[in-house]
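Before a colleague's protein record goes any further, I have to sign it off. Alongside the sequence sits a line of tokens, each denoting a local backbone shape. I want your independent view on whether this chain really folds as the tokens say. Where you disagree with what is written, explain briefly why. This is what I was given:
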Amino acid sequence: MEKPCILVSACLLGMNCRYNGKGELNRQVLELSRDAALIPFCPEIYGGLATPRDPAERQGERVMTAAGADVTEQYKKGAEEALRLARVFECRAAVLKERSPSCGRGQIYDGTYTRRLISGDGVTAQLLEQEKIPVLERLPAANAGNFWKRLKQGKNKKNKSSYRRDEKTVI
């Protein structure tokens, strides 16, 4: 049986692409490669931003750096490229970096650069979910096993997901 493809934030695989020039290797995410083909990507890089770069946060529909630069278009471009990759590889889900203005799902920073969290999604997470690609955060959760069981049974084939956003599934 062919492994399902999963889009993964490259920083979670240890790639040095975060705003601070570092990666954040998550062994649980890396272990997913036993059951799935991992497709690494970084929407900020695909959107044309450098590494390292000024930190950015969502401010409503805009994404602004701490220095005051509007990088919304780069974030949108990166999100569109992530969606394109997900379609090319027929990804059944995406495992993304939490709280990011690109990849965050459910909670993101509030745009004041004070590390205060609010409800919301990053630009890429929002677009992928609009296109019916389930987005999961990287942290462990009890219901992650149920998600993988459905994924292996093929209920998420071609992005016709049986996943419900309110499950707050994270891995």
Remarks:
- Helices lie at 27-31, 43-46, 72-88, 123-130, 144-152.
- Residues 156-171 have pLDDT under 50 and may be disordered.
